[in-house]
Amino acid sequence: MTPTDKNDRAAWASLTHDSLSAQVGKRTLTAVQFFFLNFGLLLGNILVLFNTGAFASVVLHATGDLGVSPSHASWMQTYYFISLALSLPVSSWLAATVGEVRLYLWSMIAMMLASLLCAVTGDLFWFLSGRALQGFFGGLTIPLSQTLLMREYPESSKSFAVSLWSIAALSPFTLGPAAGGLIADHLGWRWLFYLNVPLPLLAAALVWALLFDRQSQQRKMPFDGVGFLLLAAALVCLQTVLNQGQDADWFNSSRLIVVAIVGFLMLAYFIVWELAERSPLLDLRLFARRNFAIGSIMLSVSFMLMYGLLSVLLVRLQVVAGYTSFLAGSVLLPLVFLAKPMASVMHRVVHRFDARVLVSLNMLLFAVYCGWISRYDFFGRGGWFTQPLWSQVLEGFCLGALFVPLTTLFLSGLTPRRQTQAVELGGMLRVLGGSVASPLLGIFWERRAAFHQSRLTESFSLHDGWAGDIFARLHAAGLYGQLATAKLAAVAGQHAAVLGLDDTFQLAAWLFLGLAAVVWIADPVGPKASVTVKEDQRHAVLENLMEES
Fold it and tell me: What angle do CA 240, 244, 247 make, to 5 degrees?
């Protein structure tokens, strides 16, 4: 066993240790107190997750109010994801140093202050700082809140606790965008952050009042501070290049060249440092195991595609088609029909099949969804909401079946202690996939839209009969000269945007097909004859953390 395996990762204790059991010698909560504890912890967890999905549908309101271009929209999400990713490997050390209940309390208060900063500032720098702090302190509460809740449940009811907790896991992708759009359209986008002021305080107050005597003994744990600083510097530099590259013309900007070089040097130094460190921040040696390497990379890429398509679609529906924030978010509501039910079913059947079969089928269905939606004209307004309904239901099916088999795949063959490290590293890679999703797919969409607009302009000739008919219709509508030309250019731009969006979904379809084939390189993860109750609970907790982190 390596020294890293011997580390007691307090914040992840619920995954592998007996600390899931109620603490001996502590007072027992009454039924009313137990209800309010569930309410407080679930409320805090939902708030953290909603800050991911709900903001995606209101980001254009924020850029407009802050006086910046829509290209800055991805910045407001990506720095949130980067900070969330950085919080995951330090949560265990902070929990051991500060105490779990105390860390949860201070994290919720810090998240509240960060939300207040986002709500009141009119400056982009301070808004991005608030979003980054939101992501970091919110990310600290994800493993903590589940651990605190699970410890209060008796052994016979832990399965129910896991099921209850998992309800919030898929909310950022299903209910979050519609809820955020409703708030933005009727109250204003800043209210999304104003609501994050009293509610985290309520969650923190309930947890402190009910668990004040549950303070765990503080203990010293090794912390790889150098590795953390190197990783933070590398991620911030590389994400900045990705965010600003399109506006700054990529490597024609000497500043971006310097930032990119610094980022890659810090990343290389981080890898060398971690491989030589006795107590590393992240156990990179896990990549030597084939199933972990393939499973974690597939999870990161598939989440990048899924979240990137969601972000691109939400923004383009508002910019190109004139959808309100709520209407754009409502397009994703059908995901809720099958997302959670499918996750529950998948958890029950994953041990009865080779995990590679389930992963491959899910990737194929994602490819079908992407190919299907690329053929639907959202901007034609030719029908009611029911036309894209079934494609979104299919995506909900795929979303619900995404995390469980992939988690099973990359955890196969690992000891329980190494599984906690694998979830920590795999969860971080998944979050980083979300951080690069919006910029990468947004850039692809912009390039394809520009290409199609150029082709449409080239194919237009005043000598064609249909061109004369178009101008006749414009003249009949009272548009002459430059007004008619501007209107024609706007229509061409809208059509090019639709074609660019189609190309983006088609690219994703091909990539999902590639992932469906790549999974077969992994070693078989055959069906298990029997799974103990404790092992089943531990895997369910791991799966929930992978979905939420």
Answer: 175
Distance CA 14, CA 548 (A): 15
The H or E element that residue 345 is part of is: helix 339-349
3-state DSSP helix/strand/coil % of the chain, to nearest 5: 80, 0, 20
Residue of 221, 185, 202 lying closest to 97 (CA atoms): 221
Please report, as a single letter, which amino acid is at residue 220: K
d(CA 396, CA 407): 18
Question: Which whole-number Å values give the CA distances from 415 to 230, 411, 438, in the listed order?
Answer: 28, 9, 35
Helix axis angle, 124-152 relative to 533-548, nearest 10°? 170
Span 484-490, average pLDDT: 68
Confidence of residue 12 (pLDDT cuts 50, 70, 90): very low
d(CA 303, CA 81): 13
3-state SS, residue 57: helix
Q: Could you say which DSSP state residue 281 is in?
A: S
Q: Which of 311, 345, 521 is nearest to 433 (CA)?
A: 311
Q: Which residue has the tokens 């002459």?
A: 480
Going by pLDDT thresholds of 50, 70 and 90, the confidence category of residue 168 is low
